[in-house]
Design goal:
The complex is a heterodimer. Helix content of chain A is 64%, strand content 0%. Chain A has helices at residues 3-6, 14-25, 29-51, 54-71, 81-99, 133-136, 139-150, 155-166, 171-178, 182-203. In chain B, helix 2 (18-29) crosses helix 3 (35-47) and helix 2 runs parallel beside helix 4 (49-66). The chains are: A mainly alpha, B mainly alpha.
Chain lengths: 209, 90
């Protein structure tokens, strides 16, 4: 293995990665450094998507790489290493989110669509703001509104949105990572998206329902 | 009798209401609705501008979420974590 690969700057081939992991399992710190250098940026970005701030993302990255070092033997090679690492990251990030002091409970219902007795939208017409959204919000503001709205979601709902809409994982992959059924993934995802849509719509001055 | 009623609920002949249509959006967008249900959903859209607007804003929200970007790890933080890990391995 070249010095460049050990520094994390080069591309790791599957074979190189397998060898490095074997060495990490044997307690080789140089190999661990190489794995760390190669994956730390990716793990940080993934963690940040869940926890939403630098300090918590740093804690998650530390926890994840401690686990990699201590539990390397539990990686049996049945999945890709990156998949195993992602699961560690998602679980560490979820733990972090659950440890947070509970914020004032926000009722999602307020921003979900509501229907009349006959099943039609309660507030009509439903405004299609997608054509002229630029008139209301500067591009930079979109992301701030969505990020703030995501902070209101429960840890599990947020995890589902991150994995589905940001990481573009399939529902079965999310189900396997979080240990919940595909049906539960879909239910959480749909409700969370309806909430985000409602929050955004309300921010533009329209009825979220 | 109860079974027939249940079947009608799960597999209606029409998507008559916005409530029914809204419940189908997720599967419609991932192509997981069976073709007959997808057709019923689209038939509802043809007569319901409210649901067209709703679907557009639902899709746009996903697009916004997907486009969120995040910074790379700050170099100082990387150094700090490396030091922390080394200290913990001793």
């Amino acid at each position: 293995m070249t010095k460049k690969e050990l520094s994390g700057k080069g591309q790791l081939s599957g074979e190189d990665e397998r060898l490095l992991i074997q060495r990490v399992k044997a307690g080789d710190q140089k190999a661990f450094e190489a794995i760390f250098n190669h994956y730390v940026s990716r793990v940080y970005r993934q963690a940040f998507k869940f926890v939403g701030n630098e300090a918590d993302a740093e804690d998650v990255v530390q926890d994840v790489f401690l686990l990699v070092y201590r539990k390397a033997n539990s990686f049996l090679g049945k999945s890709e290493f990156s998949t195993w690492l992602y699961r560690l990251t998602a679980n560490a990030a979820l733990t972090k989110l659950r440890q947070r002091k509970k914020q004032k409970e926000v009722s999602l219902d307020e921003y979900l669509p509501k229907f009349r007795k006959d099943g039609h939208h309660l507030v009509r017409p439903v405004v299609d703001w997608t054509q002229d959204v630029d008139k209301f919000v500067a591009i930079k503001e979109y992301s701030q509104i969505i990020k703030e709205a995501m902070e209101k979601l429960s840890p599990m709902d947020k995890a589902v949105v991150v994995m589905s809409d940001m990481e573009e994982m399939s529902n079965p992959e999310i189900s396997a990572t979080l240990g919940i059924t595909v049906q539960a993934v879909k239910a959480r995802l749909h409700r969370a998206r309806l909430f985000l849509r409602g929050k955004f719509t309300a921010q533009l001055g329209y009825s979220p329902t | 009798m109860a079974k027939k009623a249940q079947l009608r609920r799960v597999n209606p002949k029409k998507v008559d209401t916005c409530k029914q249509a809204t419940a189908l959006i997720l599967d419609y967008l991932t192509g997981e609705l069976d073709p007959r249900m997808a057709l019923l959903f689209e038939e509802h859209l043809m007569v319901c501008p409210d649901c067209v607007s709703f679907l557009n804003s639902y899709k746009e929200t996903i697009k916004f979420t997907r486009s969120l970007s995040y910074e790379n790890i700050p170099p100082d933080m990387k150094k700090r974590i490396r030091r922390f890990l080394r200290d913990n391995f001793r």
